[in-house]
Amino acid sequence: MLKVFHAAILDGYQRRKDKSVSIRFVTQELTTNEVAEIDRCLDTFGVLYYRGTEHVNTEEIDELDNIELDLYDQPKKQSQRMRNIMYKVWMEQGGQGDFKEYYKKETEKIIQHYKNKLEQ
């Protein structure tokens, strides 16, 4: 589990049109290893906890560690992931014909596979 703890100043934020917020923090000078820790966190999903000058206690840290992130590990729905993978396979096979037809044919094979399991 990657964790980054650094004193920082909330430097600014920007509202985005999809209703999310981009938040910017500035730390004090960091060592190369501390910057490497931050680099390892790029493009990963996590929890942001900002606290003012109050002292952080162990109960809060335990609470942060117990936040369930599985819901957000995969920002795409399973069906979107399946369609994307099938598209890549279709492209690797030459991308011949209409992808919609390919998708329909392949998903029908998957559906039939599971229907056959019910009939056993």
Describe this structure in words.
With 120 residues, this protein is α+β, with helices and mostly antiparallel strands. It has 2 domains: 8-73, no CATH class; 78-119, no CATH class. Helices cover 48% and strands 12% of the residues. Strands 1-2 form a two-stranded antiparallel ribbon.
Name the overall outline. Answer: elongated
The secondary-structure class comes to alpha+beta
Helical content stands at 40-55%
Estimated radius of gyration: 23 Å
Major sheet attributes: 2 strands, antiparallel
Please give the domain count: 2
Query: Main sheet: which strands, in order across?
Result: 1-2
Number of strands: 2
What do the pLDDT scores average to? Answer: 85
Distance between the termini: 43 Å
Outline of this structure?
The protein is of the alpha+beta class. The chain has 2 domains: 8-73, no CATH class; 78-119, no CATH class.
